[in-house]
Structures are given as structure tokens and as C-alpha cells.
Write a structure and sequence with these properties.
Blueprint lengths: L3 E5 L7 H12 L3 E3 H10 L3 H10 L7 H12 L7 E5 L5 H13 L4 E8 L2 H9 L1 E4 L5 E3 L18 E2 L6 H15 L1 H8 L3 E5 L4 H14 L1
Parallel strand pairs: 1-3, 1-4, 2-3, 4-8
Antiparallel strand pairs: 5-6, 5-7
Helix pairs in contact: 1-9, 2-3, 4-5, 6-7
The structure holds adenosine-5'-diphosphate (2 copies) and zinc ion.
Length: 218
């Protein structure tokens, strides 16, 4: 079986993590979130986490060499033999290039790149109300996807928190960084014939259904 490497693309707040998690359950492939790996390292106060923090706090990207090494290390683990769902990586053309080269060495390639299209106003709104479970990283949104009990994770009862980089000034900077450094990947993957453009402004379940249908048809 050819391994399936799927990359979720879209602005911060477009729903990449939310959709990647659902897709990971359906397809039985690991979800690899570079942001989650950085936050995990920060929680454990590792040198990588402390380095990443200086960039994450302002919404800037962590340097390519550090990020590429970290994700390649994760992708080399046995659970990725059948593929993976990448969320938040690649975010620059250099990262995309490094990923293509690494996959080619094992006879694999990027299979499909779903792009979640959501307006700038909507992503800013979503991030203002984003809450994350400290324990299992499940994602909530106070207005669109609230937990059953305020402040508690539906899945594990963990405490929900607001990411420091979801404050409004940092959100604007992250959007700016997205347009400057990540948006060129849309053209890159379109030219490679693997881009799947989806309307990400619909309800979570509707986007997931569109995503599964698009992957099946492709
Ligand atoms: P979001 O879910 O809002 O898209 P992430 O959790 O993916 O945000 O990323 C949070 C932060 O972690 C980014 O603002 C950036 O500082 C850092 N980061 C995550 N992935 C990458 C990457 N591929 N390259 C560089 N920095 C990254
Ligand atoms: P990303 O990983 O692209 O930054 P997330 O998956 O973290 O995006 O989603 C950002 C916020 O928007 C979260 O609070 C999440 O609960 C919420 N969200 C995700 N998908 C939708 C959707 N289709 N409609 C409304 N809110 C959504
Ligand atoms: Zn939880």
C-alpha cells in the first residue's frame, strides 16, 4: 500500500487541527502537529521548547532548520510507515522542499493537500474564542464549538486554557506571517497537482464530510 501523507493547509484558525484530528481517527494515521510538539517541549522545559518560545510568543515562525529536524525525526518513527496527517507543517517553501526530499528517499510523496478556505475576519473571530485542553489538546470554540461544562474538556475532563498567542495583537501578526511565508505553499502544491480547495467556513462536521469526499474522489 502506498503511504498517505496529507498536509492540512490554511491560515491560523482555519480549522487545520480540528479537521486533522477527526481525519486521523477515521484513517487511522497519526496526526503530527508541529505547534503541539513545540508546546509539549515548552511544557517540559526542553532546550527546543525554550528556543521555540521566543518565536511563538510573538507569532513568528521558529527557524526552518530547527523545525525541519524536529518534524523529520517525528516522521521517521515506525507509526508513520503508512503515512501521516501533518498539521502546521510545512509553513515555508524551504520546509515543503525538505519534506518532499525526505519522502522521496523512502519512495513516498505528499499525497494530498486540503486547503481550508476561511475569511480573515472569521479566523480572527475563531481564535479570539479558541480554548484548548491542557491534557489531550482537544480544541473548543466558545461560540461555535463550546464544551458541555464551561472550562472542562468533554473528552477527558481536563482544564481548558487560552493560548497566549491567541491574544489579538499576536493573532494579527500570525496572519501577517501566514500571508508572507506560508501562503506561497498554496501555489506550490497546486502546481504539484495535489491541492484540494475546501470551503472551511461551514460547520465542523460539514467540512469533515467535504474533506473525506474530496480525498476519496481525488
Ligand atoms: P495555529 O494552530 O494557530 O495554526 P500552531 O499551533 O500550528 O498555530 O503554531 C503555533 C506556533 O508554533 C506558530 O506561531 C510558530 O511560532 C510555531 N510553529 C508551528 N509550526 C511551525 C512551523 N512549521 N514552522 C515554524 N514555526 C512553527
Ligand atoms: P488551526 O489549527 O487551523 O489554527 P483550529 O482547528 O485550532 O485551527 O481551530 C481554530 C478555532 O476555531 C478553534 O477554537 C476551533 O474549535 C474552532 N473551529 C474549528 N473549525 C471550525 C468550524 N468549522 N467552524 C467554527 N469554528 C471552528
Ligand atoms: Zn481533554
Amino acid at each position: 500500500m502506498t503511504p498517505l501523507f496529507i498536509i492540512m493547509l490554511g491560515a491560523p484558525g482555519a480549522g487545520k487541527g480540528t479537521q486533522a484530528r477527526l481525519l486521523s481517527e477515521t484513517l487511522g494515521l497519526p496526526q503530527i502537529s508541529s505547534g503541539d510538539i513545540f508546546r509539549e517541549n515548552l511544557k517540559n522545559q526542553t532546550p527546543l521548547g525554550l528556543l521555540a518560545k521566543t518565536y511563538m510568543d510573538s507569532g513568528a515562525l521558529v527557524p526552518d532548520d530547527v523545525t525541519i529536524n524536529m518534524v523529520m525525526d517525528r516522521l521517521s518513527r515506525p507509526d508513520c510507515a503508512n503515512g501521516a496527517i501533518l498539521d502546521g507543517f510545512p509553513r515555508t517553501l524551504a520546509q515543503a522542499d525538505a519534506l518532499d526530499k525526505a519522502l522521496a528517499t523512502v519512495g513516498a510523496q505528499v499525497s494530498k493537500v486540503p486547503l481550508l478556505e476561511v475569511s480573515d475576519e472569521a479566523v480572527i473571530n475563531r481564535l479570539a474564542g479558541r480554548r484548548v485542553c491542557r491534557n489531550c489538546q482537544a480544541m473548543y470554540q466558545l461560540e461555535f464549538n463550546p464544551p458541555q461544562v464551561a472550562g472542562k474538556c468533554d473528552k477527558c475532563g481536563g482544564e481548558l486554557y487560552r493560548r497566549a498567542d491567541d491574544e489579538s495583537d499576536t493573532v494579527r501578526n500570525r496572519l501577517f506571517v501566514y500571508y508572507k511565508q506560508t501562503a506561497p505553499l498554496v501555489g506550490y502544491y497546486f502546481a504539484h497537482g495535489v491541492l484540494l480547495s475546501l470551503n472551511g467556513a461551514r460547520a465542523i462536521e460539514a467540512v469533515q464530510a467535504d474533506l473525506l469526499a474530496a480525498l476519496k474522489a481525488a
